Amino acid sequence: MSEGILLKGYGGFYYVLAEDRVWECSLRGRFRIRDQEFLPGDRVEIEPNGEQETTEKAATTKDMNKKATIERVLPRRSVLIRPSIANVDQALLVFALTAPQPDLNLLDRLIIQILGAGIQPFLVLTKKDCWLGDSGEETLWQAYGKLGYLLAMVSSKTGEGLEWVRPALAGKITVLAGPSGAGKSSLVNALAPGAKLKTGDVSRKKRGRHTTRHTELFQCAGGVVADTPGFSALDLPKMKREELSSFFPEMTPFLGSCRFKSCLHDKEPDCAVKEGVKKGDIHPLRYEHYQMFLQEVIAAERRY
Ligand SMILES: Nc1nc2c(ncn2[C@@H]2O[C@H](COP(=O)(O)OP(=O)(O)OP(=O)(O)O)[C@@H](O)[C@H]2O)c(=O)[nH]1
Ligand SMILES: [Mg+2]
Ligand SMILES: [Zn+2]
User: Is any atom of ligand 1 closer than 6 Å to the C-beta of 161?
Assistant: First the structure.
């Protein structure tokens, strides 16, 4: 029996990384569990199948995956809903600097979801090779750089900046998350050339629309990386209205200095957070998203 990581489920089989190789697994008959109960990233125990199960075809195919049976799914350390995956250590939030223009509302939602799941975010901004970067954009990304998470500007085309990403992957399970066309699959290809993932075709009319259809994990730079389908909408996790500010680290120094102890930093007078925005310590766009999200959280509270 050995322990492995579920890389993907496909066509009734499950592909599991264990003992440094990929096993094609089926489910033990009496433990048969429905598909949706497995998530990529699940830790499973597998039992290699006996030689008698080797088919004629497998015997003639040199790199055929070895076969095994999944006996047990181990408890999950973490679960992410979007993208759907278990047990990740960190998330690379992949957004293009340009083409497509980054959706910062989505980025701020994603940061909240990742932090809420107890996972470390690493912001990877792609397509540096075709980004000109005006001063407004520079200021904005500097604000993200000051949040206390890792941030790298890279190009999967030229390889620029990948030296910052590669060392962060070793020994970890990392999920790539971000909108369609941001360059997630291209990033995996640049980091692990053997992966040969399909990427969006630039010549297509609806450029970069959902090229990746399923979540799949790959061995990459000494770790395991999950390429995932892009998404464009994301709900905020369930929380109380007064918790929202804790997901905005740039607000931390100001909390507790507002006139009202119960200040939600919205319409209240003498609000230290709003002072921080005025002084330029909090980026106005981030604050605008805080206000939008606050209304969403309040509306959602009423539905519970
Ligand atoms: N110039 C340039 N183009 C890039 C870079 N990264 C990705 N692209 C292009 O951007 C397009 C989309 O890239 P993908 O890697 O398919 O994007 P994705 O995030 O995997 O998209 P989905 O699978 O739909 O979620 C492709 O045409 C890539 O060639 C980059 O660093 N520089
Ligand atoms: Mg993709
Ligand atoms: Zn306040």
Answer: no
Burial class (CB in 10 A: 0-12, 13-18, 19+), 303: exposed
Record the pTM: 0.91
Indicate if 172 and 198 belong to the same structural domain. Answer: yes
Q: Whose CA is nearest to atom 7 of ligand 1?
A: 183
Per the structure, the count of domains in the chain is 3
Regarding whether 222 and 87 lie in a shared domain, the answer is yes
* pLDDT at position 292 over 60: yes
106, 107, 186, best to mutate for ligand 1 pocket (most atoms within 8 Å of CB): 186
Tell me, yes or no, whether 162 and 33 share the same domain: no
Cα(258) to centroid of ligand 2, in Å?
A: 44
b/e burial code for range 236-247 (CB count within 10 A of at least 16 → b): bbebebeebbeb
Q: Which atom of ligand 1 is nearest to the CA of 126?
A: 31
Q: What is the pLDDT of residues 13-60, one digit of tens each?
A: 899 999 999 999 998 775 565 555 789 999 999 999 976 445 555 555
106 and 198 assigned to the same domain:
yes
